[in-house]
Amino acid sequence: MDESIEEQDNLSQEMKEMILSLPRERGWRTPYLYLFQGFWCQPAEIQAISTFQNHFQAKKSDVFVATVPKSGTTWLKALTFAIINRQNHFISSKNHPLLSFNPHDLVPFIEYTVYGKHDKIPDLSNIQEPRLFGTHIPFDSLPNSIKDSNCKIVYICRNPFDTFISSWCFANKIKPPHLPTLNLEDAFEMYCNGSVGFGPFWNHMLGYWNESKERPKNVLFLKYEDMKEDVHFHLKKMAEFFNCPFTLEEENEGVVENIIKLCSFEKMKELEINKIGTFGRNFENKHLFRKGEIGDWTNHLSPSMVDKLSKVIEEKLGGSGLKFRMK
Ligand SMILES: Nc1ncnc2c1ncn2[C@@H]1O[C@H](COP(=O)(O)OS(=O)(=O)O)[C@@H](OP(=O)(O)O)[C@H]1O
């Protein structure tokens, strides 16, 4: 029995019973993860996702920032917000919202923020368009309203080695004190078996990868390593995808470069809001900015771990054409 579910007063009784009927595994920063609609998630997320699926009405101007956790969500939200709002929030303004808010506050998560209160179905109809939302939900579990609308989904994932290390470090930083530390070896087995938040990671990637091939005008598939290598190129690609390409004048004025600087790891990490602010009651923003590098996994994984995860990647993603730069 998962006593922690009984203690959660943000879950309805019906939801608790449904969740307790699902397969479960040890969690990373909660006692358990539950297998819901083919992916692993926390009880509160399941309730929020169900409400989202039952009530969300997409608009064709909506923009979703969809991501594998720990693969560049914060960065992609910042870039998306800056690009889309650059007419009403000038990039070089001292009052730019990204200087005083964390990107998760500007592009709210569906499963934590927007639908995070179980007794309230939010009225989203009056939010200024385009509405920006973030989510870790796999493509197959997005409501039909989104799939049938013409809205835009920008997706990012990252090489699984770095995603794993980032997830493991983050989980241990933000877990409640009563949960034991998750050691590297246990976390690694869980990750390779697919039991990680919103995993298995390969299904998550393949869902959006396949959709981006089918509907490239609606789903833009990005990789953290590619963004790091040439952020200028990808920023322009994003702006075109959102139907607001940079004009020559903007390019000449340095707007693209200024967005890159504003959203850079170094700049964001040093902002007051990201040093001392918190994401709700859940964690301190500073934990979202660790190293921001490609290849930190080489400092943590043994040769046999590298071999094992390489085999998982080859087995699950080998035929898809999806490849990653590892370092
Ligand atoms: N601006 C910017 N540029 C480049 N990289 C950045 C940026 N902001 C955060 N990061 C790095 O992204 C990792 C956190 O991933 P997410 O933002 O996806 O986390 S979360 O899912 O929203 O919790 C985490 O990676 P690691 O350092 O490897 O742990 C962050 O350091």
TrEMBL record:
Root EC class: transferase
Keyword S-adenosyl-L-methionine: no
InterPro entries (UniProt xref): P-loop_NTPase, Sulfotransferase_dom
Domain Sulfotransferase residue range list: 61-321
Domain of life per record: Eukaryota
Keyword Transferase tagged: yes
Family matches, as SUPFAM superfamilies: P-loop containing nucleoside triphosphate hydrolases
Protein name per UniProt: Sulfotransferase
